Amino acid sequence: AQSVTQPDIHITVSEGASLELRCNYSYGATPYLFWYVQSPGQGLQLLLKYFSGDTLVQGIKGFEAEFKRSQSSFNLRKPSVHWSDAAEYFCAVGIIQGAQKLVFGQGTRLTINP
Amino acid sequence: NAGVTQTPKFRILKIGQSMTLQCTQDMNHNYMYWYRQDPGMGLKLIYYSVGAGITDKGEVPNGYNVSRSTTEDFPLRLELAAPSQTSVYFCASSPASLSYEQYFGPGTRLTVT
Known about the structure:
The complex is a heterodimer of chains A (114) and B (113). Chain A is an all-beta fold. Chain A has no helices and twelve strands. In chain A, strands 2, 5, 6, 10, 11 and 12 form a six-stranded mixed β-sheet that branches. Chain A has a four-stranded antiparallel β-sheet with strand order 3-9-8-7, with no helix packed on it. A two-stranded antiparallel sheet of chain A has the order 1-4. In chain A, a hairpin with a 3-residue loop joins strand 10 and strand 11 (100-104). The model of chain B has no long low-confidence stretch (mean pLDDT 94). Chain B is globular, with a radius of gyration of 13 Å. With 113 residues, chain B is an all-beta fold. Chain B has no helices and eleven strands. Chain B has strands spanning 4-7, 10-13, 19-25, 31-37, 43-51, 54-57, 64-66, 76-78, 87-94, 103-104, 108-112. Helices cover 0% and strands 50% of the residues of chain B. Classes of the chains: A mainly beta (114), B mainly beta (113).
């Protein structure tokens, strides 16, 4: 069955430090992969997506993610975090199961230390 | 465009009461979805719709019902509310283009006591 695993429930980094959030997926076909961000009390906003082609994809707010098929991973990175990046981050894989759907990971909550 | 709107933002229900969560999108998207979000559990799909008049169950449909009479609206009905339905509910929509990208509403926080 399709699944997405985000191994880190909570990560704390200092402002200005680099960030990597991990995501592993399980899907038989070529995956369509997404990262969404949820600020406190808000809905989910798309950060970036991977469909095909270049395995390093750029997103909004200075985020990027790298697709590694051999590791079934799609990790999210940012070179220098800002206090406003504190949020919950969700990785998702797009599937066809009756209709196009997204399967989400459990989420990683990011805290930024000043 | 307002995108995806949800009402109400917050609601407290007593056990056994019923209510409807409203969801409207103005992007002419064919696909619409309802999710619930519980702490540490990510988002679970409750129901989805591929167009007006067509709905289907997702992963966790028990205790909920939906209808889709128009492209724009996709209300979620809770009958006989139970404490297990305390959650944050999100509505989302997606164009029928195999883009998979979903656009989310701001959510409804529901407490059942």
